[in-house]
Write a structure and sequence with these properties.
Low-confidence stretches: none
CATH superfamily of one domain: Amidase signature (AS) domain
Structural class: alpha/beta
Radius of gyration: 21 Å
CATH architecture of one domain: Alpha-Beta Complex
Helix content: 25-40%
Shape: globular
Order of helices and strands: HHEHEHEEEHEHEEHEHEHHHEEEHHEEH
CATH class of one domain: Alpha Beta
């Protein structure tokens, strides 16, 4: 019999509507799993008292026969970079260890309105600045599949929580792959929506935004359930003025679907990853998809991505660290220093490169319905790897972690296109491998439906 904590969100929703499950017992089961797997260090704050009170209130509504909202009684976690009213939001930093926001972020407010029960705040590196599941504030988060490899970052705790049954849903943020990378490392689903479709008003520069809020789950159906609740226009977001998403009813066949397969993206892809993702592509072809191998040198855009990342972090967090350097990690201080050293010309060139990449992606979508690639070039890296150093892939020094390990994920942060990572197999050592699907702007719902079909094919 499946443990209650391992039920999907869609299973919980169906159970509530039959009155076959209790929000109280579900919440207790999830809190029990969090306590039992405290070794994974997925949470910095567990909101057990509030969650139990919300569960009791939800159960009273259910027993009274009231209409139930779409996320009714479903426990979920929120990455600790996302504001939660009345609940500590630390940004993974000792600078914010006592920070308690007065207002929910847009996505949190919408999830709350849809009936979800906040179970806690998940771990993240400081300000999400580095591809490492560690922080001076909370320590290290472990991968539930193999503690010797990274769970990915920066939505580390979110992915671990979902994978280990500590809530079927999670909200993460993605500034360069920070939802999709941990999803691939932990064998779950991670979805980065189109820019503006899920408003993210915490960003200081909304016009130059490249960080996104999105769902993480164990199945595409669950990710779609959370996405439906948090998506929608907001006049305060310049890209969210009319976030109209085309709706395609039903589960689409892959027959005739035009897929651009980008197998390398200018980087070296480890042999097993290439083999596993290649098999996945052949499975899609067998279902009638029309696959054409093509290439964009994604890796070559790493300097532009790094400039935008470093300048943004320097502007946002640099002033916070002055005189308090002892409280923050050296890697954050180094990133701030690199950002402060960039000139206005450097920033303008990076923005221009972002435009060129967007146009290249748009050109592909003139001929294809979907762009597919591995999510990562290699399986999860060793847990103790230095994320600021070069990495080796099959005996070759391939350069920095960002360009060498995830050249497929940061491009969509620059271009704004929606992208989702799906599990597509395991290596001989049992480590998960992800397949990334990318669609045109505002085709989020269509992408999720196609992803659901592909999920079934690859199961």
């Amino acid at each position: 019999m499946t443990d209650i904590a391992d039920l999907t969100a869609t299973e919980l929703a169906a159970g509530y509507r039959r009155k076959a499950l209790s929000p109280v017992e579900v919440t207790e089961a999830v809190l029990g799993r969090i306590e039992a797997r405290a070794d994974l260090n997925a949470f910095i704050t567990v909101t057990s008292q509030d969650a139990r009170a919300e569960a009791r209130a939800a159960e009273a509504r259910m027993m009274a026969g009231e209409d139930l909202p779409p996320l009714f009684g479903i426990p979920y976690s929120v990455k600790d970079l996302i504001n939660t009213a009345g609940v500590r939001t630390t940004m993974g930093s000792r600078l914010f260890k006592a920070n308690v926001p007065k207002e929910d972020a847009v996505a949190v407010a919408r999830a709350r309105k849809a009936g979800a029960i906040l179970i806690g705040k998940s771990t993240t590196p400081e300000f999400g600045h580095v591809q490492s599941p560690t922080s001076p504030l909370f320590g290290r988060t472990l991968n539930p599949i193999d503690a010797g490899v990274t769970p990915g970052a920066s939505s580390s705790g979110a992915a671990v929580a979902v994978a280990a049954g500590m809530g079927p849903l999670a909200l993460g943020t993605d500034g360069g792959g920070s939802i999709r990378i941990p999803a691939a490392c932990c064998g779950v689903v991670g979805f980065k929506p189109t820019l503006g479709v899920v408003p993210h008003l915490q960003l200081p520069d909304l016009f130059g935004a490249n960080s996104f809020v999105g769902p993480m789950a164990r199945t595409v159906a669950d990710a779609e359930l959370l996405f439906a609740a948090i998506a929608g226009a907001d006049p305060r977001d310049p890209y969210g003025q009319a976030a109209t998403m085309l709706h395609e009813p039903g589960r689409p066949s892959l027959e005739g679907l035009r897929i651009a397969w980008i197998a390398q993206g200018g980087a070296r892809v480890q042999g097993e990853v290439a083999s596993i993702t290649g098999r996945a592509i052949r499975a899609l072809e067998a279902e009638g998809a029309r696959v054409e191998t093509t290439e964009i040198d994604f890796k070559s855009y790493e300097p532009a991505f790094l400039t935008l990342l470093r300048v943004g972090l320097a502007a946002r967090t640099g002033p916070l660290t002055k005189g308090r350097e002892a409280l923050v990690s050296q890697s954050l201080l180094d990133t701030i220093a690199l950002g402060e050293a960039c000139s206005g010309v450097d920033l303008a060139r990076a923005t221009a490169a972002r435009t060129v990449l967007f146009q290249a992606m748009q050109s592909l979508f003139g001929r294809f319905d979907l762009v597919v690639s591995p999510t990562l070039t290699a399986p999860p890296l060793p847990i103790d790897i230095d994320p600021t150093r070069d990495i080796m892939i099959e005996g070759h020094n391939e350069g920095t972690v960002r360009g060498a390990w995830y050249p497929f994920t940061f491009p969509q942060n620059l271009t704004g296109h929606p992208a989702i990572s799906l599990p597509c197999g395991r290596t001989s050592n049992g480590l998960p491998v992800g397949l990334q699907l990318c669609a045109p702007w505002y085709r989020d719902r269509a992408l999720l439906k196609i992803a659901s079909t592909i999920e079934d094919i690859l199961a």
